[in-house]
Design goal:
The complex is a heterodimer of chains A (237) and B (390). In chain A, helix 3 packs parallel to helix 5 and helix 5 (151-163) packs parallel to helix 6. Helices cover 34% and strands 28% of the residues of chain A. Chain A has one domain (37-63, 86-231): P-loop containing nucleotide triphosphate hydrolases (Rossmann fold, 3-Layer(aba) Sandwich). Chain A is α/β, with parallel strands linked by helices. Chain A starts with 8 loop residues before the first strand and ends in a 6-residue tail after the last strand. Chain A has helices at residues 51-58, 81-91, 107-118, 122-135, 151-163, 181-198, 209-212; strands spanning 9-20, 23-35, 40-44, 66-71, 74-75, 92-95, 169-173, 201-206, 217-222, 225-231. Chain A has a six-stranded mixed sheet with strand order 6-7-8-3-9-10, sandwiched between helices. A four-stranded antiparallel sheet of chain A has the order 2-1-4-5, with helices on one face. Chain B has 390 residues and is of the alpha+beta class. Chain B has two domains: 2-51 and 239-385, no CATH class; 58-230, no CATH class. Chain B is 49% helix and 17% strand. In chain B, a hairpin with a 5-residue loop joins strand 6 and strand 7. The longest helix of chain B is centred in the N-terminal third of the chain and has 40 residues, at 16-55.
């Protein structure tokens, strides 16, 4: 893997079709996109425009029907299930709209989970988990379970879990969709800070104006095609 | 190791659902081991009793003798001579003679087996010395079952009729000098024991016997030409078969219990996979492979078995130890069971019985836990994250 001379993400003519009865539904059509390291970029667009599909392909959770998607030097369409799992495990962090915290685990255990998969020692894990929880301001909740947390707290735990292993790329799918304005800003500020402090690349899928005002680059998708690709001046943070 | 750690967290985190499954499964564990131990104990007790009272160290039979065919009795006798005589003289064997007879207790007619045994024998733990009482014309001893079914008591006279070697019918009164109690019904029910020499004389079969019972502890049974050797394996085969058949019948109860426990685990697994699709998607997004997911869910299910074994050991061990120490009082009707059962059954638990039963249940639980997880092999991460199971 060589990430120094290549863009972090490079999509060439990516097409994604899903079978629908006897025909196919085209979710993405001829997408060309490049994302460099350290970007704070959002893919915006209405529901059904293909944002999540694009994020899934970049996150190696799905593969393109046609075209090529290179992420951190790996061609997603050529990756085996095991190699894709390894890419996600080592280099990617995910933040979901519905937080997707593991319900029977405590906050600490949820954040620790990706580190367990990486096989780090208990001491290393403890330090990294506590660092991550400190970034998101949740060190006082380490023993709580997801059911005992508010929506904002849950999403902060999800962010801590996504960044705890200091991945090169964090993919956030509608991270503020279930949050009120105050919590949304709180979360976004935390992510901006982590982007600046750790140099982590953030790629959002959103149609939330609150998120958009924090972006430095906005890619608009319409009916599976890139309609606009703009450099932004962040308003938030 | 990681999967075990994760599975343990998940299982413990599932709370009440886990403990309900574990309790039901632990009941199966304890019941299976308790019942198996009971049948083992029953078998050992019966074998021990039969060895002491009837078979001792094995038997030599007249070639025509078939215990299940009374018609063979007429021809199943031969002189105890040569090597057989030497074995008897050396105290390594005792001769026993059988014949069919008719008895007339309380004015009724009934058939019985008349058996002659040397009163002074010490090979069988049988009260034959009671036949040494010489002040009676023909002393006889019977077991409690025989006494009960024919309303006989010590001191009673009983007319016995038989046919001798020449086919001539003869009859004589015998006096019951002793009623013995034994759990071995095959030396009791329908049988009257008299001194061997008296029976040989009555039947006009001097020095003859139907079978020879060998002393216990003989390293090599003597070679007795003209007699068929029946080792303990052959003599106990019927008993062991009977115990096995009882065991199979009795196992239906605990197999049902185990089936219910396995059904609960299978159900939990299916429900888990259905309910935890999103969790599976999240785990895949974090880098778990499908294979690891299948492993995780299978280990989770298997862990119910491990926890049930631990819980079962916690309350089952004192229960089983108490059971093995104090035994189980049997009701009188167990005489109808078909083989020797003591009034108190003492279960026998061996290390291998406990280990074997535990491994069997654990293996079954693991298989049952694995079966529903095969669906995960087809799971796409994006479908799982959407909560969709393909």
């Amino acid at each position: 893997m060589n990430t120094t001379t290549q863009p972090l993400i490079e999509l060439n003519n990516v097409v994604k079709r899903y079978p629908m009865g006897t025909t196919f539904f085209t979710a993405l059509e001829e997408i060309d996109l490049t994302v460099e390291k350290g970007e704070f970029t959002g893919i915006v667009g209405p529901s059904g425009s293909g944002k999540t599909t694009l994020l899934n392909i970049i996150g190696s959770l799905d593969s393109p029907t046609e075209g090529s998607a290179r992420v951190l030097g790996n061609f997603i369409e050529k990756l085996s299930h095991k190699a894709a799992a390894s890419l996600r495990n080592h280099h990617l962090g995910f933040i979901f709209q519905t937080y997707n915290l593991l319900p029977v685990y405590t906050v600490y255990e949820n954040v620790e989970f990706p580190l367990l998969l990486l096989g780090l020692s208990a001491d290393e894990r403890k330090k990294m988990v506590m660092d991550a929880l400190e970034w998101v301001g949740l060190t006082d909740k380490i023993k709580s379970r997801p059911a005992q947390l508010s929506g904002g707290e849950s999403q902060r735990v999800a962010i801590a879990r996504a960044v705890v292993k200091k991945p090169e790329l964090v993919l956030a799918d509608e991270p503020t969709a279930n949050l009120d304005a105050e919590n949304s800003h709180h979360i976004l500020k935390a992510m901006v800070r982590l982007n600046q402090e750790l140099g982590t690349t953030y790629l959002f899928s959103t149609h939330d104006e609150k998120v958009i005002q924090y972006l430095r680059r906005k890619i608009t998708l319409l009916d599976g095609k890139i309609a606009t690709d703009e450099v932004m001046t962040p308003q938030g943070g | 190791m990681l999967l075990f750690k994760l599975a343990f967290r998940n299982v413990i985190g599932a709370g009440l659902r886990t403990w309900l499954n574990v309790i039901v499964l632990s009941l199966s564990f304890v019941t299976i081991i308790a019942m198996q131990g009971l049948y083992k104990g029953m078998q050992y007790q019966a074998e021990d009793a039969m060895m002491q009272v009837e078979y001792a160290g094995g038997q030599y039979w007249h070639p025509a003798y078939d215990p299940y065919d009374p018609f063979t009795l007429e021809d199943s006798h031969q002189p105890v001579s040569g090597a057989a005589q030497r074995a008897v003289a050396a105290g390594d064997a005792i001769p026993i003679l059988f014949t069919q007879a008719t008895i007339y207790p309380q004015g009724r007619v009934s058939s019985a087996l008349l058996k002659g045994i040397p009163p002074e024998q010490e090979i069988m733990e049988f009260p034959s010395e009671q036949l040494l009482q010489s002040d009676h014309a023909l002393p006889a001893i019977v077991g409690t079952r025989m006494a009960k079914s024919n309303r006989l008591a010590v001191g009673d006279y009983l007319t016995v009729r038989w046919r001798d070697a020449n086919g001539t019918f003869d009859a004589q009164d015998v006096q019951i000098v002793h009623v013995f109690s034994t759990i071995v019904s095959s030396v009791d029910a329908g049988q009257i024991w008299v001194p061997l020499e008296r029976l040989q004389s009555m039947l006009k079969m001097p020095n003859e016997a139907t079978l020879l019972t060998l002393r216990q502890g003989l390293t090599d049974p003597p070679v007795l030409p003209g007699w068929d050797y029946k080792g303990l394996d052959i003599l106990m085969a019927d008993l062991r078969e009977m115990v096995t058949s009882k065991q199979v019948g009795g196992s239906i109860m605990y197999l049902l219990l185990l089936f219910l426990a396995l059904l609960a685990i299978f159900d939990t697994q299916v429900l888990s996979i259905w309910r935890r699709k999103k969790e599976m998607g999240t785990l895949m997004a974090m880098g778990l492979t499908r294979r690891q997911l299948i492993g995780l869910f299978t280990i989770e299910g298997g862990m119910y078995g491990v926890l049930a074994a631990l819980l079962g050991a916690l309350y089952g061990t004192p229960l089983i130890v108490w059971f093995a120490t104090h035994g189980w009082e049997m009701p009188e009707m167990v005489d109808d069971f078909g083989f020797a059962i003591a009034s108190k059954l003492v279960p026998s638990y061996s290390f291998f019985l406990v280990l074997g039963s535990t491994l069997l249940v654990l293996a079954t639980v693991t298989i049952v836990s694995y079966l529903p997880t095969r669906r995960i092999a087809k799971l796409e991460p994006t479908d799982a994250l959407r909560g969709k199971l393909t």
